[in-house]
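User: I'm designing a mutation panel for ATP-binding cassette, subfamily B and want to avoid disrupting the core. Could you give me a predicted structure to guide residue selection? Please restate the sequence first so the numbering is unambiguous.

Assistant: Good idea. Sequence first, for numbering, then the predicted structure tokens:
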Amino acid sequence: MFSVFNKLSWFFKEQWMRYTIAITALIIVNFIDLIPPKLVGMTIDAIQYNELSAARLTEIIVIFIILIIISYAIMFLWDYNLFSGSLLLERKMRSNLMSHFLKMSPRFYSNNRTGDLMARSTNDLKAIMMTAGFGILTLVDSTVFMLFIILMMGFTISWQLTLAALIPMPIMAFIVHKYGNIIHARFAAAQSAFSELNNYTLESVRGVRVTRAFVQENQDLGRFSGMTEEVFQKNKAVAKMEAYFEPTIKVLVGISYTIGLGYGAIMVFENRISLGDLVAFNVYLGMLIWPMFAIGELINVMQRGNASIDRVDNVLTQQPDVEDPTKPDFVKQPEHIRFQNVEFTYPEAVGKQLKAIDLSIHRGETIGIVGRTGAGKTTLFKQLLREYVPPEGKLTISDIPIDRFTLNTTRSWIGYVPQEHVLFSKTVKENLLFGCGEISMEEINHILESASLKEDIESLPKGLETLVGESGVTLSGGQKQRVSLARALLMDPEILILDDSLSAVDGKTEANIITHLRKERQGKTTLIAAHRLSAVKHADQIIVLEDGQIVERGTHEELMHHNGWYKEQFNIQQMESEVK
């Protein structure tokens, strides 16, 4: 159970001063809290023996007031340090998780669903925060405070009475241990069910259009209701076990009270203790209720925290497939890119997705990459984006193996426009400036012209300040493509990769964009993958991929003389455009 503190030891070492102050202050407050019951007992004895004078009563009242003021000040000290520490832990772990997510490769996201990652970033971190705050509080109160009370009862009143009243304690320790093991298992199951629900909710919201199109609202609601019921039942099972704690402890404390009152009264009659001692003893017994209850809370918080930190650590211990070299190389700009007998297989896939790729790209060239769906165009780009471990063969930039550069270096050279356009739920302008920071309106308007987007932006309700909605829902497919293209162009990258990024625009708009690209990208490398061959007609070199292999290469004119797939497909597309 207490292994959770060992797992968080790195944080406690980092914040040792904060926790030292908090725990020390908490112990001092616990000690101060032991004084008033003794004063009450002494006052009762003084009244019983007619020894209480006005001066003595005034002295006792002043002591009470001083203790209250000191206790208040020290309570603020431990409360502030302890719970601000737990908030710091939550912030630090959330930042660690986010940093981890950003450096992980695609395989990580194929093995971990988004809803599950969100659950670990919210509910699980809250449970860990409780461990570092409320957990420390209950640990000190259920050990140090309880020990102080027992010592006070034993040394200042009677050890016989104290030991008799504490007979139920071993029974409570055994029961609490059993409860804790059950809670740990049930809480882990509840968190897993919540992750499933989180993931399903996310998919349901994202796919609401498809759900409506196929008239599956009732079925979707039924599945959601079933999952919420499962989450409810599993959390109910946790709550049921937690509900046993307080009654169990109250029964055991009640037994202690019964023993203390009965045996204590006998000792008073036998003059072994005074009436004031009996009153003080019962006040101390009352004070034991919280430490005993704190044991149950401690078990509860520790088991929740232990389950949650295991789930978070399971994510954080997963390593990215691609990492920076220990001694990276550096070049100012990529003069040429060379694929030499490059072969690549996706993790856990069967067969090679790229085979014997030989391709040389010089700075300033435009390369067209075409082929049937699934031919390997996107896979080829992913080698430059370094989403997977380096492929077999040699992939070099300026004659240096690509894995000798840091990820930031290679990715800073590249502007990538993927097939699936990702827009954030912000304004059009914020989406455009995502990768480049602040840029003048003159430059933005220039790029909007290049992407044939200026008229579309002007037609929006608030122009560049228009919110695009979740994943760009307020924009058409073609507009989303061109916003993504403009975002990449604003970076002015050394290498621009367009992965079938003009498929949703009409032929005339595509022609305008290509014309602007040829003008704007002079002296810089551009890679264009497309199904519409008119998008690559102007390229310095065109390669045709089939089953991960280059089956044709050359300029447009050269390929039109080969009587291969390229010529056949180009003629078909030309006839289709003439019919339209």
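For picking mutation sites, this is relevant: The chain has a mean pLDDT of 85. The CA atoms of residues 342 and 393 lie 4 Å apart.
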